[in-house]
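[job 0412] stage=fold_complex status=start
inputs:
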Amino acid sequence: MALARVQLPASAKRGEVIAVRIAIQHPMETGFRYDNMGKAIPKNVINSLRVRYNGTEIFRAEMGSGIAANPYLQFFTVAEASGQFDFEWVDDDGNRGMERARITVE
Amino acid sequence: MNTPVRRRFVARLAGLAAVALLPLRAARAQADPFAALLKQVTGGATVRPGRVKVDTPRLADNGHSVPLTVSVESPMTAADHVRNITLLSERNPRPLMATFYLGPKAGRAEVATRVRLNGTQRVLAVAQISDGSYWSGTAEVEVTESACLDMS
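[job 0412] stage=fold_complex status=done
writing structure:
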């Protein structure tokens, strides 16, 4: 489905607080807009995003139409061990998306 | 130089001004647009101002995408951390913009995103701490071109 970009440091020291950033390509339709034919465009936003770090949930967002198109989020986490970040999201139409990123912790 | 008559007149004038201002202040206290929403978010728990900081540009050219950073003063340990942060808008047709769930593993209680704002308004962030208490912070944003949410 949608394209997403994830940004986090490739490596970090154990216990270091790192910034994790994600931007997803999505129109985040509000449901208040009309197309050229005057027909209402139904609301379709990414309503939830879940981030897991080596299987444990570290961040979750529930969003509405108040979040801008192509939603961007930055949050922090403590680098505990080398491994994988899993990002999963779903929009109102039921489309799911996912992205992965790896980190090496010394 | 003050004669008793003039003194009495000045006192009465001051009293009149106070009476005139009284209902105004009461009306302002009642018209908090966030009150009903907050009740929905917190389930009626008291929300204290403080500990939460909302950072936005004072003036946003375009309401379609306004950068916003919310941070909470917290040690972020297993015993004392931020559970969640909710963003509320004063004038958007859907005032509940987003809720972020954090945990002790976050390390720092800070989330940055971009929001849509339907005109000049106040944005409120409410944070729930692990002990169950709620704290809030606001930011005033002037929006030149609003995100035309109701019609386009």
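[job 0412] summary: The radius of gyration of chain A is 16 Å.
[job 0412] exit 0
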